[in-house]
Write a structure and sequence with these properties.
Helix content is 41%, strand content 17%. It is an alpha/beta fold and 289 residues long.
């Protein structure tokens, strides 16, 4: 009987890429189920005949129970808008325990083991407390943040407006993360492990701007604002206070030189070099044109 793998956050970047990886392998021993809030809308996103859907909402206990029924494994991706872990994530973890889920793969955060303030730390602890077999994926900073969160400022203003100082950041392509996620969901030797996933190189945002400038054939400038000016600008743009503070926390870590750690986990797990920032820029070029 095929193993049933439930993917939360299925319509997000990593969820979509993981589903793509799982289903492109034509593995008849797995069945992939996308947990989504709107099934009709999700069906327009995916082009896989083998993909199944289930209605899901972290804030609806009935849907949680129905989604986890007869599932074997879960890829757990926390929605950025959900910060109340005990209220909205713990019920899913408790239900996973009751349903005897064999394996939870949780998309966590690099350095989370030393940062009890972030939701990911609490979620890891809850999963461990329930003694559910787990794999924690702890990636560095997503390259795709520049083609999504910072897309508008690069495309329209030819600038990167980030308060990271001259500190270097290790960037990882979400396609590498998704490939690891699909690997650990389909192999048995990754349980109760945490993988710190990074790219091959750490770059300052000055270097990032130079790579973008070269590929886009126009000048992209790294502005390096003060934290106060960044906060003010993002507040005017309508971002929530929570999101602004999370971003400030990430970029302050870079400013202080705490975001540049590089590991060899991608090479070890996938047997290949991580995607470079230059490769990412070439592949996503259309986003900024």
């Amino acid at each position: 009987m095929a193993e049933k793998i439930l993917i939360t956050g299925a319509t997000g970047n990593i969820g979509k890429e993981t589903i793509k990886n799982l289903l492109s392998n034509e593995n008849d021993e797995i069945e992939v189920i996308a947990a989504v809030r709107d099934i009709d809308k999700a069906k327009n996103i995916f082009d896989f005949n083998r993909l199944r859907f289930t209605k899901f909402d972290f804030k609806n206990s009935r849907l949680i129970k129905e989604a986890l029924q007869n599932k074997d494994k879960i890829l757990l991706i926390r929605p950025p808008a959900i910060s109340k872990v005990k209220k909205y994530i713990l019920p899913l973890i408790k239900e996973a325990k009751r349903k005897d889920i064999k394996h939870i793969v949780f998309l966590s955060l690099q350095g989370v083991e030393n940062n009890p303030l972030v939701p990911h730390y609490k979620i890891e602890k809850l999963i461990k407390n329930e003694k559910i077999p787990y794999t924690f994926l702890r990636p560095s900073f997503f390259m795709q943040n520049l083609s999504t969160t910072h897309k508008k400022e690069i495309k329209e203003d030819d600038e990167i407006y980030i308060p990271a100082g001259q500190g270097q950041t290790n960037f990882i392509d979400i396609r590498d993360i998704a490939e690891v996620a699909s690997l650990v969901l389909t192999e048995e030797n990754h349980k109760n492990k945490a993988y710190e996933l990074t790219g091959k190189e750490s770059l300052s945002y000055y270097k990032v701007a130079n790579i973008l400038s070269e590929e886009l054939n126009r000048k992209i400038e790294y502005k390096n604002p003060s934290i106060f000016n960044f906060f003010t600008k993002k507040k005017k743009e309508g971002l929530s206070l929570t999101k602004i503070l999370v971003m400030i926390g990430l970029y302050t870590a870079a400013r202080l030189g705490k975001a540049n750690k590089t590991t060899s986990e991608i090479q070890n797990l996938l047997g290949k070099e991580p995607i470079t920032f230059t490769e990412f820029t070439k592949d996503y070029k259309e986003n900024w044109l």
